[in-house]
Amino acid sequence: MRVNSWNGWDPLTHVIVGRADGTMVQAPEPTVVRDWPDDGFPAGAYGPLPDDMVQAANAQLDAFADLLRSRGIRVDRPDVIDFGRPVSTPDWEQGSMFGCMPPRDVLVTVGSEILEATMSYRSRWFEYLCYRPLLDSYFRDDPDMRWEAAPKPRLTDDAYKPGFWPEYEALGFDEQIARVRENDLALTEIEPLFDAADIARCGKDLFVQLSMVTNRSGVDWLRRHFPEHRVHPVTFGNTHPVHIDATWVPLRPGLVLHCGEREAEEDLVQYFKINDWEIVSAARPAKTWDELPKLCFCSPWLSMNVLSLSPDTVCVEAGETAQMELLDSLGFEVVPVPFWDVAPFGGGLHCSTVDIHREGELQDYFPKRYGRF
Ligand code: ARG
């Protein structure tokens, strides 16, 4: 086996697919307080997601894994640990962990390197442990695999803005977007913090969303860690930015899918355009906010959280008809995959996976510079 993946679209041959088992509505922590009074989890309450939901999600995850295998793709699965256990470091105690459905959040593959992200929630600090048996086996089986972990963050109270959410929620849309553009959000800059799912890989260019879980220091760390790449911090007009893969999803050289509701910065748009990329607005999601599954902390835009199997084949949630038709009209073979039962466990088809091997080498898809890019 060989670890190799430079972008999100080259032919996929080896992938990790997450598991729903044991996933928690996590215990409160400085910037995460779940509040679902109608579904058994009023603010401050925490505990495992209901069994029937776990079974339904696992059925979809297993079927997805089988579908990938039927296409000749090797699929590995993480180790489930006891996410209900309280955890601590010398700096803090946290009532529970979270789960291991979305490997995309924790790991990023860049060429022959797999990098473990810092993560920025205390409940997710130990999540890398679920992937260690796999990472260890890749390290043994591939003599060229580079196994890296970003500096484990301390996540003291000083890593978070005190009283962030009440103050932020009281702002209007424009004020919130101004804060997003400045990345004046939940995290301070006391240490580098990022989730892997804020990174969109396009060969030599890595686009990293500044978000509720990724700060400037985190992007700066990535820039210094990948000196052969161009690492670009980017923002979108999304009041609650968490992970780039329901906002800006490159599908093949020259085509990126964009959540039109979340405006891209003008320089980013121009950078894509002068390099002959087409920016296509994702189709309206099939679900409204009210129709999301219970205990779901993601948005209806999981509709565009698609997984490319190659530059002309893409897996799309099976109920997202408009999205499937749009991709079909753009010349893709669309593979429908039922997946909404997985959403409450942390995301869609892209979130639930992480590439270990795609054919293809490092390429520069953006030869022309523009503005700060
Ligand atoms: N926060 C995004 C949205 O709701 C979902 C992104 C999920 N991505 C992930 N890798 N877990 O629009």
TrEMBL record:
InterPro entries: AmidinoTrfase. The keyword Disulfide bond does not apply. Keywords: Transferase. The keyword Endoplasmic reticulum does not apply. Its EC number is 2.1.4.1. It comes from the Bacteria. The active site is at residues 195, 243, 351. SUPFAM superfamilies: Pentein (SSF55909). One of its GO terms (biological process) is creatine biosynthetic process. Belongs to the amidinotransferase family. PANTHER family: GLYCINE AMIDINOTRANSFERASE, MITOCHONDRIAL. This is Glycine amidinotransferase.
